[in-house]
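[job 4471] stage=fold_predict status=RUNNING
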Amino acid sequence: MDEDGAAAGEAAARLDLLMERITHDVGAHVGVTYLLVPERQVLQMTAVTGAPTRLAVPWVRQALASPAPMPEAVRSQSPVWLSGHQELARRFPRTALAFPYSVAHYAAPLMADGVCWGALDLLFPGSRPEGLPAAELARISEAADQMAEVLRDAAARRQPVRPRDEPLFVEPPPARQAEPVAALLERFSEGFVALDLQGRMTFLTEGAARLLGRDRAELLDAEPWDVLPWLNDPAYENTFVAALFSRQPAGFTARRPDGAWLSFLLHPDATGISVRIVQGEAPDSEQEPAEDILPTVPTRAGTLFRLLHLASALTEAAGVSEVAESIMDQMQPVLDAEGLALVTADEDRLWVAGSRGFPPEMPEQVNGLPMATRTEVARTMETGVAGFHPTNAELVRTFPHYEQYRKMGAFAFLPLTVSSGTFGCLVLGYDRPRNFSPEERAELTSLAGVIAQALERARLYDANARLARGLQEGLLPRHLPRVPGLRVAARYRAATHTQDVGGDFYDLIDLGAHAAAAVIGDVQGHSVQAAALMGQVRTAVHSLARTGAPPEEILARTNQLLLEQNSPLFCSCLYAHIDIPGHRVLLTSAGHLPPILRHPTHHTDVLDLPPGLLLGVAEDARFQTVEVPLRPGALLALYTDGLVERPGIDVEQSIDLLADQLARQDDKPLEMLADTIVTRAQETVAAQSRDDIALLLVEYGKAGKAHPAGP
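[job 4471] inference complete, writing structure tokens
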């Protein structure tokens, strides 16, 4: 591990320790640390104590916009206290549906210097209508401040703490079994078992092994529902989960393969669950199970809650790719499916929207197939009826040329149907034969309906986004003019997490007589109205520049035009008149970010211009022009805020970082330099940015050459 990685690891370990300590100190039985991932607009779990990570899967990632306690604490930058499940259901019904346990929540944002870095979630057993004592609240607040400072300091050292790909389970110190107590328990006819927080048997008496019908060596370090098939029922594991989260005693009765009934009494605490096993009687509802050729694989405990959470997550996904990613990440492990594919129909042809676990060549084999092709996917879409195949025998016999059917043991084909009809198919593949019980078939069919609604909405979103992008691209210049004595490069990147049209624009205007004007601006908001206003501003500036008006007058008259439009939107703008034979540039700003000048020596200056009011704000706005000398080889960088805004970092510091980046770059071609700057911004500013990026580079004293405006 390099030095930076080691430092980040030390900070993460410190964060884990603070979380575990405060959880123990205030009597919470579960503690969770979430870190904010601003580029994805999500909170991601990085560590948990008091509950196994596998039970935390549905809540590993929470959209920042979702109606849930943790995102609410981060959005409001204030703690969220929920005294019990009833209040959780009242304030956050979606979360309560997916988390039906009797606990109280305290969600605290991790704030330092006005910046939120994540959140701490503490769960307390039962309900606490009286609230938390003032002393405990103070301790939680202090711990949250310390955690935030760890994150802030690590980021300041440019060694930020990132959320782990899989949350770390911070295990409490194990409770060691004293030998005399073990001997005492062996004298009872009942059986006694100790389960850790992961559900593993860490201790059991000989009496327990005898009642369970296995050797102790087979049972130790295993989960009961994994090693004992007759306990592999969702009701049994769910009793364990309920006891774990609520810290309240629970119990269930189960029948051994020989017909004998056992009662299991669960007593939880902070380190695990103690289980007492006694011989019991059959419940009143006992019925003889049906004899099946293939074993029924029950849905594991918590699956329904995970599926409900998936449905909630799908409402947060925007485009088809995001819906597919949510399904692949959250549904496949929940359903124990080896392969999962989403296939849709477009213009009577099949297309794979997402695939995981199937052979990599499968999308290529399916994409573009006519609906009339004889396939199980096409049959499912044409009939709208789900197909469940407990074995692959029928599929191999009917479709011998599809090799993927031979590589898995069972399949489910689920139609994706909305009010307008069936438009797709969800394909699940399992690595071994599987008897789909009526309950599981109903569950999968219902889930397919939820996915269909989300996918149809995503398809509409993508269609609207393509239309919006086409409109915006039509308003930006396709090519920039060739001006002797200048080289130019421009880049525009649309926000990746919105379908609305942005208002960023740029232009290079050939003024003849060895002069040119470089312009960049940003209309407030993302909407068709913003794009329309952007087009008007760009046209107005272009026309006024050709009249020979000075820069301050061009912006003043453009401001008047916006006021006459009576638009509620504002616009920032930076106008640079480049006098090529005069070796100078005249700069005027209307509330826009300052340009950066790189000298031929590669020293950079962030040019301090009179800021001026935004266009469209005040009728009497006045703008000032500043003259800056240019030497051959100088480079002028104009940009919009999407290039430099970083969560948690002051914008002036971000601009300085951009200036440093320009200074460090060698004399590479201007097009390559523009690509480098934008790529770096997309990596460090936002992977799913909610703001557009526009960049215009103008190099003085080099031969002009025609270039496209840039993608």
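[job 4471] summary: Residues 383 and 422 are 8 Å apart (CA to CA).
[job 4471] exit 0
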